[in-house]
Q: What sequence folds into this?
């Protein structure tokens, strides 16, 4: 039996530096996979405490979005956050002990809007970079990192938290996507 073909091809925009395009593609592929997992989330599950772990799906999504914004502006661009960032992130992501702070209940749609808002800033800013920008090593608070590392880290960070979200869903009795 033959169904629709699963296409696994990296397609880069021809309007950006090839290395930048690869990094953006990786980030978009990671986000697409996260969105596929989130399509299975039922409304009552956003703030439901997991069977395993200490963070809710909502807390993890807030964290993913804020960390993406922080690494983009603080570590890659060395610029202040956009002026409307506080409307999207009214709560600091960590508590005094350094643990992720429980986020007030919000619907999945609000989390998706926040992720899209941050990603639109990332796309706009990163698409203007070139290979030299990716190779440039910069320092922030005693940590040196290159642009290429920052973008790789963001994809990896989201993928790891997507795994946590999937584990939470599995703990709720929801099967893993095919």
A:
């Amino acid at each position: 039996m033959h169904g629709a073909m699963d296409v696994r091809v990296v397609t880069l925009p021809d309007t950006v530096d090839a290395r930048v395009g690869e990094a953006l593609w990786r980030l978009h592929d990671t986000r697409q996979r996260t969105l596929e997992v989130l399509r299975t989330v039922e409304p009552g599950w956003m703030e439901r405490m997991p069977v395993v772990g200490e963070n809710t799906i909502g807390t993890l999504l807030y964290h993913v979005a804020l960390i993406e914004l922080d690494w983009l502006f603080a570590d890659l661009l060395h610029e202040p956050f956009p002026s409307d960032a506080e409307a999207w992130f009214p709560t600091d992501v960590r508590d005094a002990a350094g643990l992720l702070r429980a986020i007030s209940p919000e619907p999945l749609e609000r989390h998706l809007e926040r992720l899209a808002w941050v990603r639109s800033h990332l796309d706009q800013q990163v698409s203007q970079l070139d290979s030299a920008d990716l190779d440039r090593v910069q320092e922030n608070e005693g940590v040196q990192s290159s642009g290429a590392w920052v973008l790789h880290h963001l994809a990896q960070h989201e993928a790891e938290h997507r795994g946590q979200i999937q584990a939470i869903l599995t703990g709720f009795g929801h099967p893993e996507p095919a």
User: Anything to note?
Assistant: The chain has one domain: 18-171. Helices lie at 18-38, 57-77, 85-88, 108-126, 131-135, 147-171.
